[in-house]
Amino acid sequence: MQQLIVIEGATASGKTALGVALAQHLNTVVISADSRQFYTEIAIGTAKPTVEEMQGIPHYFVDSHSIHQPVTAAQFAQEAMELLQTTLKDYRNVVVVGGSGLFIDALCIGLDPIPTNPEMQLQLRSELDENGLAPLLEELKQTDPEYFAEVDRDNSARILRALEVIRSTGKPFSAWRQNKPAPRPFTTRRFVIEHSREQLYQRINQRVDNMLADGLLDEVKSVYSFKELASLQTVGYNELFDYLDGTSDWQTSIDKIKQHTRNYAKRQLTWFKRHPEAAWIPYSDTKKMLGEILQLIDN
After folding, report:
1. Quick one: which of 181, 157, 142 has its CA closest to 233?
2. Per-residue pLDDT averaged across 65-78, rounded?
3. Continuous H helices in 65-196
4. What is the longest distance spanned by two Cα atoms in the chain?
5. Once rounded to an integer, what is the mean pLDDT over residues 234-245?
6. Structural domains of the chain in order of their starting residue, each with its CATH number
7. What is the DSSP letter of 225?
8. Residue 68: pLDDT band with limits 50, 70, 90
């Protein structure tokens, strides 16, 4: 049976280099499970791996879609499953790398069937446009504190989706995610890169500085006319949209990117802790972490 080896971790934790090293050792490929790296139009703010960083290892779901066609977790899982059963069917091991816990779970575990309500979607979108995200976040906090604790609060699409289900059914969104999906045609081993909080926050702050030096503002300007798209409702872009709108000064915008990224990293780690079977690998040099993972796989 095929095996997926998942390298998870918070943003800026060193997943890309470790995933590439593991794929090289196993002579296989990488499926990216980072929900922002799908999009061809944005690269700097998503920390998309460069050609040099990929080191010749094929990466799937990097530059695979347009921001005008946002990818849901269910869609990603379906497309990745099809890929595994066709193009990648002869690979005994496939490496999955990412920090988007919902997308990883959608592929490795499956999603519960959750109802949709197009009329409620339109109503919520209207409320968002008129009043902003804050009152919707407060509603989610009151009606489903469990999901509120783990969701990316800068991602309006996920907030609206949860409230769509809650208002339509009268049940918390988290309650709809308790059923057992269909079994998968592969086994899964999960590894999470672990940092001290201080170390991770230093890496995040440095990454943001590097993104700005690499031209993040110009990238944000290039997609500014599409800023209402769901695919662009994310940290690093929202803050600079505010700067370009004149509602935030430069330093405040930069500070908010760092703060919101740190907040996002904390929620990522909370999500990964949902899986007690995952092995947490203390961050060190890539070669040492690779050795620890290979030893665990062999055992």
Report:
1. 157
2. 92
3. 73-85, 101-108, 118-131, 134-143, 145-150, 156-169
4. 56
5. 96
6. 2-111+181-298 (3.40.50.300), 118-177 (1.10.20.140)
7. G
8. very high
DSSP 37: T
- The span from the CA of 190 to the CA of 276, in Å, is 10
Between residues 262 and 155, the one the model is more confident about: 262
pTM score of the predicted model: 0.82
DSSP 234-263: STTTHHHHHHHHTSS-HHHHHHHHHHHHHH
Rounded alpha-carbon distances, angstroms, from residue 257 to 46, 154, 209, 216, 233: 12, 11, 10, 12, 13
What's the distance, Cα to Cα, between the start and end of the chain in Å?
17
User: 278: which 2 tokens?
Assistant: 């995952």
* Structure-token pair, residue 114: 């959750």
Phi-psi map region of 298: left, alpha, beta (phi>0 left; psi -120 to 50 alpha)? alpha
- Beta-ladder partners of 187: 3
**Six token digits for residue 262:** 């740190």
